[in-house]
Write a structure and sequence with these properties.
- This protein has 2 domains: 3-103, no CATH class; 113-292, no CATH class.
- It has a two-stranded antiparallel sheet.
- The protein is globular.
- Helix content is 71%, strand content 1%.
- It is mainly alpha-helical.
- It has helices at 3-9, 11-31, 44-59, 87-103, 107-110, 114-138, 147-153, 157-173, 177-202, 207-233, 237-245, 251-254, 260-271, 275-292, and strands at residues 38-39, 42-43.
């Protein structure tokens, strides 16, 4: 099909596609540290992403608008079809893509406000402490031969998570460069301990013990990766590269032991959002971490 005529015949769909592309490309550029200059308290890239999302909202179909006539009224001649051949299907697909774009709380758009990111990090800390407490109690559920190895692999979670919580609160109170540096180092340290714990749990032979161990550590991993994504959003490209340099156990090494469904449910509950939106959010965050070198 001729792309020019396609744009002419479907301007609304083409415009929505362009805006979604702008928001997506802006997100990738922001994650790579490309700002294209500053605008007010943010950057040109984050402004472009925000405007694209806002325009998608303005283009969204009014729920109260009259519905298209049933497809059965179509005579087969799209040019003379009073029902608008294919219009209902096109509007539904377009509306779905707009809804996805508007529902998704993109990390790079949050990153332009250090205070909101700091608050979000602190908001995760009660869940983190609860998940670590669950890990501590999981050893009792394992086979006697597996419990000691599991306890040894997760022994550092308590100290590292408590220190991260304290540093997150310190960063919220004063989002300074020094507080951010401490937070960056601590989140990488905890993430590496969690990744090591996942590898150790995967080596457990007893299937029931392995299932309990992986499920407990998975909950901690989900929260730690969410906090890591938030810290990335307020870090420069050079700082993210430095953080990734200290990550010796990469996400790719433990990806097979992570339950994406469980992670999406946890994120959806935390942000009070649909699970489908959380699934996309988790996927984008993990992709950004992999691209950064974690």
């Amino acid at each position: 099909m001729n792309p020019i005529s396609n744009i002419w015949n479907h301007p609304r769909t083409s415009a929505a596609g362009l805006l979604i592309s702008v928001a997506t490309v802006a997100g990738v550029l922001a994650q790579q540290g490309v700002s294209l200059g500053n605008v007010g308290g943010g950057t040109v890239v984050t402004l472009a992403s925000a405007l694209a999302t806002a325009l998608l909202g303005l283009m969204a179909r009014d729920p109260g608008a009259p519905a298209a006539q049933p497809a059965t009224s179509c005579t087969g001649d799209c040019a003379n079809c009073s029902g608008g051949c294919g219009k209902s299907s096109t509007d539904a697909k377009l509306g779905a893509w707009m809804l996805i774009a508007l529902l998704l709380p993109l990390p790079w758009m949050e990153g332009c406000n250090a205070t909101s990111v700091a608050q979000d990090i602190v908001n995760w800390t009660p869940s983190l402490q609860s998940a670590v407490a669950t890990v501590d109690s999981t050893a009792a559920l394992l086979a006697p031969a597996d419990a000691p190895a599991f306890a040894a692999a997760t022994a550092g979670f308590d100290t590292a998570s408590n220190l991260l919580v304290a540093q997150a609160k310190a960063y919220l109170a004063n989002p300074s460069a020094s507080a951010l540096a401490q937070l960056q180092a601590q989140i990488v340290l905890l993430q590496q301990q969690v990744n090591g714990g996942l590898l150790a749990a995967a080596r457990i032979v007893d299937s029931a013990s392995q299932r309990h161990a992986l499920a407990a550590i998975q909950a901690v991993a989900t929260i730690v990766n969410a906090i890591l994504s938030l810290v990335q959003s307020v870090s420069s490209k050079a700082q993210v590269a430095q953080m990734a340099g200290h990550a010796t156990i990469k996400l790719a090494a433990v990806a097979a032991y992570l339950d994406g469904t469980q992670a999406a449910r946890m994120v959806a509950e935390h942000y009070d959002e649909p699970v489908t939106a959380a699934q996309m959010q988790v996927a984008l965050a993990e992709q950004a971490e992999v691209v950064a070198g974690f």
